[in-house]
Design a protein that fits this description.
By secondary structure, this protein is mostly helical. The chain has three domains: 51 residues; 94 residues, Receptor-associated Protein; 246 residues, Receptor-associated Protein (Up-down Bundle), CATH 1.20.81.30. 76% of the residues lie in helices and 5% in strands. The protein has 16 helices and three strands. Strands 2-1-3 form a three-stranded antiparallel sheet. The chain is extended. The protein starts with a strand and ends with a helix. 29% of the residues are buried.
Length: 401
Amino acid sequence: MLFNYKVVDEKGVNKEGSIDAPSKDFAISGLQRRGFIIVSISEVGEKNKIFKFSFLTRIPVKDVVILSRQIATLFGAQVSALKAFSLLAGNTENENLARKLTQVADDLQSGLSISGSLAKHPDVFSEFYINMVKAGEETGKLNETFLYLADYLDRQYSLTSKTKNALIYPIFVIVTFFVVMGLMFVVVIPKLSAIIQDTAQTIPVYTQVVIAISNFFVNYGFIFLIFLVLLGIWVWRLSATESGKTFLDRLKLNTPGIGNLYKKLYLSRIADNMDTMLSSGIPIVRAIDITAEVVDSKVYRLLLKDAAESVKAGLSFSAALEKHPELPSILVQMVKVGEETGGLGNILKTLALFYKREVDDAIDTLVGLIEPVMIVVLGLGVGILLVSVLVPIYNVAGSIK
């Protein structure tokens, strides 16, 4: 639970803030251990919680990247964890992140470990992040761990952002295409078809088809719109179920054009995650399990979970991956070479870079092809509609002469 407080410190200075604690008593104890005299303390209302944790206050990945680099710098300068998080909380522009860092500092002062304090904020620090920090605590290389994390998050943020941005343009063009076609069928075609039907000439078959489609949208367009809304709701509810997530992820991976792009994106993420964790000393089974949780694909999550169970049963990592045809043979063979030579981390790093380049090339190719293809399709669609209704009108005008 989250509590707002007003206190007076040992120097008599009034302070305000918030603290996360299991109960009000724990919150009071935590503040008193810091030497504060409590003036008032109250639980944050449910309405306020909803506002604070809405998508509007979600902490961007780039802020976590910057935070990780700052922590690494402070740890490298031999600044204590409590002092480091307190300094960062007071110098962070993002108010939501500053509040969470203050809570982390409070938890550290209460005796929690850094990984345990960060684990209380899963909306900011993923399981992957927490396990990396835990490994850094065990090996005594926290500054290196946070640098690993900053580099990893920076790579993933760049790759994911580039993929999403590449898909925005074609989606915008497709939506524009359907809007234009819809307006043509509902607004333009009915007016022109009325002129054509008032004439006594024979209407070409292709024009009759266009007029029939236009009449359908004019008469039943509202019902069609309701159907689309219901379909959207059904897809949304389907995506909330485990089987639905798997189905939609498989559909996305098998979609021509973007499916191959997503496959390479996920493979790059898997290789990068595994390399980062193995380099930090995390056992391979644990690394596979964590990667399964953060890969952001139900298909690959199930695949990796099965691979983890196979490794627990005594199979090598490459043999566990070889059971799944979804994975390219080059990846399996490279992992096998890495296991045989004892350089699995380096092999995974090479694979991560390879698939990152593949994603970059696929995005550049997609963006390069989408623009001319969409323009041609849009032009042909509008052109066919206009020809279908304007040719009969020109015929009428010609017969009048």
